[in-house]
Every structure is written in C-alpha cells, then in structure tokens.
Design a protein that fits this description.
The chain is mainly alpha-helical. It has helices spanning 14-23, 35-43, 53-68, 78-89, 100-108, 132-143, 147-160, 165-177, 181-193, 201-214, 218-229, 234-243; strands at residues 118-119, 122-123. It has a two-stranded antiparallel sheet. A hairpin with a 2-residue loop joins β1 (118-119) and β2 (122-123). It starts with 13 loop residues before the first helix and ends with a helix.
Length: 246
C-alpha cells in the first residue's frame, strides 16, 4: 500500500473530484497527486452520465453503512471514494448498483428542502427564543447541503430543547442519509408523536417508511406506504411505486 500511495503526494478530496469532473479534467497535469488518487481521477471519465457523481458517492455512503451496520460516510474517508472511482474505471460499477429494498431506498431517498419559517432573522416557535441563533445556523447549514455541520448544530440545539420536533425531523433525514437508520427512526417517531405542524405528518411518515425499508422491516414500511398512497401528492406517487415492487 505504501508503494501505491506515496507519502510525499497529496490525496484527491471529494470536493476536488466533483469540481474536476464538472470541468472534465481527468489528468493530474501538475503531478501533485499520489498514485491512488491519480488512478481515481482518471476513473472519473467512466462515470455513467445518467447519475450525478455526488449522488453516486452518497449512494455508496449508504451502501457501506448498511453493510457495516454503522455510519461510514465516504466524505470522511476519502480513500473509499477513490476506491469507488477505481471500480468505475475498471468496469465494476455493478458493485454500486443497489438491489431489492436497498435499491428502492436509493431511488426514493432525498433531502427534503427546509420548511422552517424564517421571519426577521428568527426561526421557529417563541419557546426557543433563548437559542434562535443555534437553530438558525443549523437550518442554514442544512439548506446549504452542509449536512455534517447541520447535524452537529441540531444535536446541540436538541440537547437543550428536546421537544423541538421540527428540528428533530430534519435531523432524522440527515441521519437516514448517513445510514444511521435506528437513530433516524427514533427521530421520525418523535416527530409524529408531537407534530410541530399538521403539514409535517405525511413527510414524517414517508421518511419513517423509508427508514423501515432501509432496516429490512418490510411490513412496517408497507403499512405506512399504504397510508400514504391515499393522497395526491409526491408521497402518494412514491408510495404507490414502492408498493408495486415490495
């Protein structure tokens, strides 16, 4: 391994992978990357165009997390992202193709845009007036796609305001995206037990159903998808599509 990754060369970061792929720059013309990263960079050109590279990497996050039964995000372990790209370069993209419940989860999971109200720099119910800045920063990070930072801020906020089920709902989405299914389930169930607003009921049921699907609890997932199917929104459409394959 030391021969493959010289210590005097730097590693390719996830952000740089995405940026170079966007510019279609697949060669280390500056000779500044280690061998492993150069091979990964070259492999970017073989990535299928039908799926954005970032979506592929997030899907691999979830695939590895499910296999190890613990969070293992590749944004923290960049060598795994590089390994994924090597698989693409050598024609083993099938490794990333999900099947069964994992496939349904990957097809339907996304990060729901925030519905947290913003008024005059203050967010959320007045009961959180002592900590609006932390709550606001958490949702700003979420909206910007900085999910690791958002999670940290949300957990800090919830350590003081445990009954803030609105923030707990978005924390659940982040946890689910990172493969921490059981923790996500607890947060979605808490949201449903104390809805911040009635409009959150169907989204919370949808993500709870996806969490059950991800954890292999098909019957629990089916029950929620059947409830959601009786509607005319995106959750009804998604639930109907999933039920046809379960």
């Amino acid at each position: 391994m030391k021969k493959d990754i010289p210590q005097n060369k730097r590693s390719l970061s996830r952000r740089e992978m995405l940026e170079r792929h966007r510019r279609r720059e697949y060669q280390d013309t500056g000779h500044e990357l280690n061998e492993f990263s150069r091979r990964a960079l070259s492999g970017l050109q073989y990535h299928p165009e039908k799926e954005p590279l970032d979506a592929t990497l997030r899907r691999l996050d979830r695939r590895v997390a499910a296999a190890t039964r613990r969070p293992f995000p590749i944004r923290r372990f960049l060598s795994i992202a590089a390994a994924a790209l090597l698989l693409l370069a050598t024609g083993y993209f099938l490794f990333l193709q999900p099947s069964g419940q994992q496939g349904l989860f990957a097809q339907h999971f996304d990060y729901l845009p925030s519905a947290v109200k913003i008024e005059s720099g203050n967010r959320g119910p007045s009961s959180y007036e002592e900590g609006p800045a932390l709550r606001e920063k958490a949702m700003q990070a979420y909206e910007a796609g900085r999910f690791e930072q958002a999670r940290e801020l949300m957990e800090q906020h919830l350590s003081r305001y445990r009954r803030d089920t609105e923030i707990r709902f978005y924390l659940g989405i982040i946890l689910l995206g990172e493969g921490e299914t059981e923790a996500a389930i607890r947060n979605f169930e808490a949201t449903l037990s104390g809805l911040p607003r009635p409009a959150y009921e169907r989204p919370a049921k949808w993500y709870l159903a996806l969490a059950f699907l991800q954890s292999g609890r098909d019957e629990s997932a089916k029950g929620l998808f059947r409830e959601l199917k009786n509607g005319s929104d995106r959750y009804a459409t998604g639930a109907g599509a999933i039920l046809k394959k379960l």
